[in-house]
Amino acid sequence: METDLMEKILSLAKRRGFVFPGSEIYGGLQNAWDFGPLGVELKRNIKAAWWNRFIHRRSDMTGIDASILMNTKVWEASGHLKNFSDPLVECEKCHKRFRFDEVIKDLEQFDRYKDDPEGLKEFYSRERCPLCGANFSFPRQFNLMLKTHLGATEDKASEVYFRPETAQGIFVNFKNILDTKRMDLPFGVGQIGKAFRNEITPGNFIFRTREFEQMEIEYFIPVPKSDGDWNKYFEMWRKEMIDWTASLGVDVEKEINELEVPKEELAHYSKRTIDFEYHFPFGAKELYGLAYRTDFDLKNHGERSGVNLKYKDPETGEEFYPHVIEPTFGVERSVLAAMCSAYAEEQAPSAGSEEKTETRVVMRFPKWLAPVKVAVLPLSKKEELSSVARPLAEELRRDFIVDYDETQSIGKRYRRQDEIGTPYCVTIDFDSLNDHQATVRDRDTMKQERVAISEIKSYLLEQFKK
């Protein structure tokens, strides 16, 4: 059933214009996806709401937009050149490469043999490539950063990397932010932008891709004197992340699991990390992350660059490297979780006959998130109806994303709007020409109400406040 749900969402995503396969007319590119007319609106709504919630509405936050390409010394100081890697195994016959943890299922047994060469040899003799059935090579570390070259020559000196995270752009600009914003601790800096990772096994639709967007915050706090000092900020952001997740229409009680990452699995910069796992159709996987990065990044960048990245306490004059709490949100994963939570099927009156029922597919997005807010639907293409419907659609476009549709039966048009999650449909019929009213249909209840055409805009504005 869960697999069926994923297939249904994949089909709906392409059919209705949420997500298309990248470079499709040329056979595509492995796990590259393009966001279509509805998908781009969904992403824009998520990013705009995130920015408004965490940057504009908080006095302790500001934002930046740093470059995707950065000096390689940034990645040396951050530890990414040395530590940002996954163990990889390669099939000895077909030479296909896989992430170690994707194909080696018995990790506990592996741990028992990892210091025993003969035991490891026997262990690997039992593991098989899922494609051809041959044995794997021993695992080796594979750096996940995507490399390119700047300039006319392609040599070691011209190598640069696409950023694997947005965080470092905040850290290297810390002094500039302090100098221009004059913010007192605690304060945070947010950023939305592209990141790139040369994933060995991308997949599960838009869940794991090599090019993706992050919404990330680095929240700077005073040097903690005890665990309680940093934990109070960590807990504050944990609650903020839960509230944000719920705003996407996710049932956090049923669909979210908070995984405390074991010490031995923490990133090189982290003292504590929580993964907020969402129950996707393909399993519970990380949706967001919350990490306590200590002073690792500012300290390393300050010492390596020779630039003073310390914060100076305005009252005591003391200088120190602030510690950092980092909430990280994936844009594409937010879209996928929102779509999975919104998808519903139910029995409803048939579009062709009120006496029969059929399965209605409806995307129950929260109203603020829906890519189209209102559909204006004249009952037919006749001029007397379109002459009323088109001006109404133009008026509503000043405040809403509006879809105007006059093809097929009204029942089928309702179903089409249900599938893309449009909260309200406004139908202009022949009675409208006499009573100057239109029928407003609610997506979730399917209830219909006659409203004066002159009052529809104010009526809808009121509904979207609820």
Protein architecture, described:
The structure is a single chain. The chain has about 475 residues and is an alpha+beta fold. The protein has 3 domains: about 260 residues, BirA Bifunctional Protein, domain 2 (2-Layer Sandwich), CATH 3.30.930; about 60 residues, no CATH class; about 90 residues, 3-Layer(aba) Sandwich (Rossmann fold), CATH 3.40.50.800. It has 17 helices and 24 strands. Helix 2 crosses helix 13. The chain is globular.
Query: What CATH architecture label of the largest domain applies?
Result: 2-Layer Sandwich
Described by strand count, sense and barrel closure, the largest sheet is: 7 strands, mixed
So how many helices?
A: 17
Average predicted local confidence, pLDDT: 91
The secondary-structure class comes to alpha+beta
Using the CA coordinates, give the radius of gyration.
26 Å
CATH superfamily of the largest domain: Bira Bifunctional Protein, Domain 2
CATH topology of the largest domain: BirA Bifunctional Protein, domain 2
List the uncertain runs: none
Alpha carbon gap, first and last residue: 33 Å
Proportion of residues in extended strands: 25-35%
Residue share in helices?
25-40%
- Domains, number: 3
| CATH level 1 name of the largest domain | Alpha Beta
Number of beta strands? 24
Overall form: globular
Placed side by side, the strands forming the largest sheet appear as 3-10-11-17-14-13-12
